[in-house]
């Protein structure tokens, strides 16, 4: 086994320890739930008290302009903490799809046979649960500016990588920390029938409220910890040369 020696000046002592990779502390994880949410359908706004969020693929089956789109708002101050600001690594948006949430309106739930591709987009104007944000979604040409896309087809928790979006929020304090969830682009017509991805909204207690999970860069262990952990530490006296 390879070893290296570190001499402690003036003490005539050498420390021998097995070579090992630098120790790293575990990454810290922060969860930031959405502060508000709503969905729109053909210009109608659900309101923040609705029991669900919805996204569908109406455009894909020939009903352009009748898409159901959801919107999320997050508190910027909850993200711009020193711990996150200084050591930001990545960010993931998590939502829980529950097909039971489609039942009150007799909607067709997303399934493996009839899935819905839901994409995350930024907004070009502040979150507005009174007038809506349909006209301020940063789609890009044919949805090219989608930040991340997930295929919804079975009950469970889904994740979107929104690292680039949150990184922008952290560097620009005036950026609106809002998200659109849309299936306007990226879906296909399977059988001329629509289907819906139904998620738990902000403040949900029965399921997961929309949440951004942030990981930060772990700090390296100190040199002392590196020397004292793993494999044992051996002290050996250096032989002193004899002087006449």
Structure description:
It is built from four helices and 15 strands. The protein has 244 residues and is mainly β. The chain folds into two domains: 3-22 and 221-237, no CATH class; 29-216, Jelly Rolls (Sandwich). Helices cover 10% and strands 33% of the residues. The protein has helices spanning 76-79, 82-87, 163-171, 223-228; strands at residues 3-8, 13-18, 29-33, 36-41, 44-45, 53-56, 68-73, 88-97, 116-121, 148-152, 156-161, 178-182, 196-199, 211-216, 234-237. The two termini are 38 Å apart. It is globular.
In short:
With 244 residues, the chain is mainly β.
Give descriptors for this structure.
Jelly Rolls; disordered N terminus; 4 helices; 244 residues; 4-stranded antiparallel β-sheet; 6-stranded antiparallel β-sheet; disordered C terminus
């Amino acid at each position: 086994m390879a070893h290296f020696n570190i001499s402690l000046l003036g003490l005539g002592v050498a420390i021998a320890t097995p070579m090992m990779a630098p120790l790293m502390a575990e990454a810290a994880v922060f969860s930031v739930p959405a502060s508000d949410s709503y969905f729109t359908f053909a210009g109608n706004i659900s309101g923040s008290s609705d029991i669900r969020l919805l996204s569908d693929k109406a455009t894909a089956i020939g009903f352009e302009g009748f898409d159901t789109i959801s919107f999320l708002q997050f508190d910027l101050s909850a993200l711009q903490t020193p711990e996150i600001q200084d050591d930001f690594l990545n960010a993931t948006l998590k939502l829980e799809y529950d097909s039971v949430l489609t039942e009150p309106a007799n909607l067709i739930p997303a399934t493996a046979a009839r899935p819905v591709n839901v994409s995350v987009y930024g907004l070009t104007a502040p979150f507005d649960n009174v007038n809506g944000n349909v006209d301020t979604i940063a789609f890009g040409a044919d949805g090219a500016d989608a930040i991340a896309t997930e295929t919804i087809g079975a009950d469970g928790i889904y994740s979107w990588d929104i690292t680039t979006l949150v990184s922008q929020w952290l560097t620009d304090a005036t950026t609106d920390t809002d998200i659109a969830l849309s299936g306007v682009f990226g879906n296909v017509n399977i059988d001329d029938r629509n289907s819906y991805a139904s998620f738990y909204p902000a403040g949900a207690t029965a399921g997961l409220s929309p949440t951004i999970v942030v990981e930060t860069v772990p700090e390296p262990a100190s040199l002392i910890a590196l020397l004292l952990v793993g494999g044992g530490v051996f002290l050996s006296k250096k032989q002193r040369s004899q002087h006449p």
